[in-house]
Prior knowledge:
With 449 residues, the chain is α/β, with parallel strands linked by helices. The chain has 3 domains: 6-66, CATH 2.40.50.140; 102-117 and 278-443, 3-Layer(aba) Sandwich (Rossmann fold); 126-262, CATH 2.40.50.1070. It has 10 helices and 22 strands. The chain has helices at 73-77, 87-104, 161-176, 220-225, 279-293, 310-315, 329-341, 354-363, 382-390, 403-415; strands spanning 6-10, 13-14, 20-24, 27-32, 39-47, 52-61, 126-134, 137-143, 150-152, 191-198, 205-211, 229-236, 248-254, 257-262, 265-270, 300-304, 321-326, 347-351, 370-373, 395-400, 418-426, 436-443. The mean pLDDT is 95. InterPro entries: MeTrfase_TrmA_AS, MeTrfase_TrmA_CS, NA-bd_OB-fold, SAM-dependent_MTases_sf, TRAM_dom, U5_MeTrfase_fam. S-adenosyl-L-methionine binds at residues 276, 305, 326, 374.
Amino acid sequence: MKKNESFEVEVLDLTHEGMGVVRVDNFPFFVENALVGERIRFKIVKIGKNFGFGKVEEILRKSPFRVESNDLDFLRTGIADISHLEYSEQLKFKKKQVETVLSKSGIEFAVEDPIAAKNITAYRNKAQIPVRNYKGQLETGFFRKNSHNLIPIEDFYIQDKVIDQLIVAVRDQLRKENLTAFNEVSGKGLVRNIVIRRAHKTGEIMLILVVSKSIKVNFDKLIATFPDIKSIQLSIKTDKGNAIFGKKFELLAGQKFITDELLGKKFEISAQSFYQVNSEQAEILYQVAYNYADLKPSDIIIDAYSGIGTVGICVADKVAKVYGMEVIPEAIDNANLNSKLNHVDNAHYVVGTAEDVIAKWLAKGIKPDVIFVDPPRKGLDEAFIKASSKSEPRCIVYISCNPATLARDVVRFQELGYYLKKVQPVDLFPQTHHVEVIIMMTYCGREGK
């Protein structure tokens, strides 16, 4: 076998990222835009030591679950990497992913069917769009998978349509003012990314330009066309790191935040704050989490990785005390402001890592009844797991965007006396391979009783 050689094969399975799995002489290849049961002719594009990658040349027999699309850029960029699969089958695929990672960790558990989304397109309330030079002019779009080669895109399919319209309008204004796109090779150029947030309930919009240095842009016409713009900011990024934002922000117009509503509460959202990108499904996600916790008026809860305080503030009126921590100072500022905004006087938020802060709280005698955790993709720190287990809360409700690290952490909790009781996937990311999962664990003692 060699690169550019073609083969006719059956598609046997899907990877966790939704790529078709085929075999040639028992050697596996992963092929984009191929579905289980299809017969395809594919071309080898790369061969590694243990597996290779291929490209579909022709689909000889189509899956009955294939969704036809005239635009494969959603697959090429990974924006909507399983959009060619019928939605009901997407849900089955995601359930299988959760079952598989749990099973590989030695956890055999009945996973609930994923909670489907009402809207499976145009649901994202946030966009982070690269700006690059393309065919001699400033362009917006998305990078081809595993590269920094820009593919121009105007309709992002899963993003709020107003956000899509605003991206084009901003792009056109940047072109009009002859501003240069950033070049990663030379390090020259001004505009790196366009970041836009649009609140689902209020419609308020935040626009951030990530730039190499401070610039001036006339946004008067843009604000007139999009009157819901409440915040325009610059983020000055001079380093070469992978983070979208730089360390310095400049406010160009309006205020530093936008306001949205979630489960009847109001939340101020700043540029760097975490806020679920699918607001409709986030309400369902959090309601499931609260139901699992079976909260009582006397409960003390810890909201770890609290962000702007959404989880804790939404239940503050149902419990005695809420303690939350987050590493991003601006998010904690938002959380404290959001407490006041919602007349919550029993919530306390501090800046710090979850593992450091919980250890300090336990040393002060704070004993939680329920711990909510919603960590980043890397999952929980070992020190946090040990400290939270030592406090012996009645239950731990874990919200995860990465089933693999979730499964790893469940094993750790089980070793410390916790028993898995519920596993509920919630589809926050239709058309993509990503899945959000909520689990609930209860304490059964060090001997597993």
